[in-house]
Amino acid sequence: MDEVSATAKLVITAAVAVVAITALLLFFTAPASSGGGQHTTTVPHNTSTTASTTTVRPTNYTFQIALREYSINPKALSVYSGARVTLKIFNAGSMVHDLLVAGTTVDVSNIQPMQNASVTFTAPAPGTYLIYDNIGNDTRLGMVANLTVN
Fold first, then answer.
1. What pTM does this model have?
2. What's the fold here for domain 59-149?
3. pLDDT given for residue 1 in this prediction
4. Where along the chain do its domains lie?
């Protein structure tokens, strides 16, 4: 019984070590970003005579957006046209805020202080789109950011 118990402990310890090493590798090899964004992965394709690479465009983006008087962070987002984009919004300010993306149907209204909101949409045609707060003078006072679609 002691041999089985010792073997089981060894197997569990080895499994935990593999999980920990895998997590560390994923953490240290993941692309750096501020809350999500554009990720490009290069995948090698080897044949017997040549080697080449293909750039894979991401199809899903998730961004963490912070609203406060009078700023939207991050200031710039970049995605590919046609990709699915999720904005996870947190109103870190003390006033109610909105978040709109000009030229799109994205309109998240009345986000209360210290509350979360979320919106998912398909990235529009290539171009630069203004992200802004439409309440009062918030846009003029600096509550703006840009969405660049490639």
1. 0.65
2. Immunoglobulin-like (2.60.40)
3. 53
4. 2-53, 59-149
